[in-house]
């Protein structure tokens, strides 16, 4: 039997609230569908800092590396605003990404038909939207050295972050984008700022060369990342797959989230390279949103991004395509029924909390299985 070791890292704020809804789905799948997930759990972020003084303990890091997939909630919050920089909650997530070598972050932005009215943009702009942002996740300014605040000794300090990309990093992330484009609209838009950044010049060159060498059947276009942000809100349906660096990908995916109605809707998959022998790859699945301190503890969080992240886990880590499709259909079905958390609420719909939304999706998932 395929090993299905799942590590749950709920984290902080609304992370554990959203994860509780996924836990119910897994319990049902294990009991009724004999899915055979082996669950383990760990601490990350502020909750890990409070327990161990680290944003993730060595023991939990080892569990993540030994798992078949990690489900991650969210980290951070005002409680940990003054902890030392290297110990802040977000450092736990960055360590997981780096040490698991999760270089490919897939952030699909799909506007469910029932939510075409919930976006801050006009319905005709977002209706039917289905784009995929492929964000490079282990390089760029997030990890480049030097990274420090230097005392210049004259009463001034200098904050330094360094954007670094090597050829192989651009080759492998653009390869992922081209491969995925072939399974959908067959078009890739690469975004960088070659007009001001040397790393942007190299990015553009390497994406172009990779395309020419291996993926000439896919349509490739290049866009400056600032113009790309503008085009995302002007006419997002022009895009199929967008490939971009770590920082631009972070910003562009939050922008794309609003096209779908709410940040509470956007899932993501962070994948490593396939193992040459087994073909399996390290993977972590997480919503694009954060710990939402403003609504944490109120029971109002939208769990859909977390549940849809689990659907991506079923698809990409366990090849459980039928179950993944069914879970996504359950989400769409519940939205069609007019059930809404506060962030996607509109007139005439039924407003529910986190738990009720999770229950409704599970009930629909069960009904679709029958
Ligand atoms: P955020 O994503 O936590 O929240 C932004 C806004 O979106 C808030 O108004 C929040 O209420 C709303 N929102 C987010 N998710 C929602 C959901 N599921 N349902 C309903 N509304 C939702 O971003 P922020 O406020 O900028 O950051 C808060 C903390 O989260 C910071 O410490 C930040 O570093 C951290 N963060 C963590 C992750 C992560 O763990 N992957 C991602 C982004 C931010
Ligand atoms: C995200 C988050 C993270 C990032 C933070 C919490 C480190 O914003 O996953 O989008 O900047 O990558
Ligand atoms: Mn982000």
UniProtKB/TrEMBL annotation:
Residues 5-361 form the Isopropylmalate dehydrogenase-like domain. SMART domains: Iso_dh. Binds 1 Mg(2+) or Mn(2+) ion per subunit. Pfam families: Iso_dh (PF00180). Pathway: Amino-acid biosynthesis; L-leucine biosynthesis; L-leucine from 3-methyl-2-oxobutanoate: step 3/4. SUPFAM superfamilies: Isocitrate/Isopropylmalate dehydrogenase-like. NAD(+) binds at residues 77-90, 290-302. Its cofactor is Mg(2+); Mn(2+). It is found in: Cytoplasm. Substrate binds at residues 97, 107, 135, 226. It is an enzyme of class 1 (oxidoreductase). Its EC number is 1.1.1.85. One of its GO terms (biological process) is L-leucine biosynthetic process. One of its GO terms (molecular function) is magnesium ion binding. It comes from the Bacteria. Its main location: cytoplasm. Keywords: Amino-acid biosynthesis, Branched-chain amino acid biosynthesis, Cytoplasm, Leucine biosynthesis, Magnesium, Manganese, Metal-binding, NAD, Oxidoreductase. Belongs to the isocitrate and isopropylmalate dehydrogenases family. LeuB type 1 subfamily. This is 3-isopropylmalate dehydrogenase. The gene is leuB.
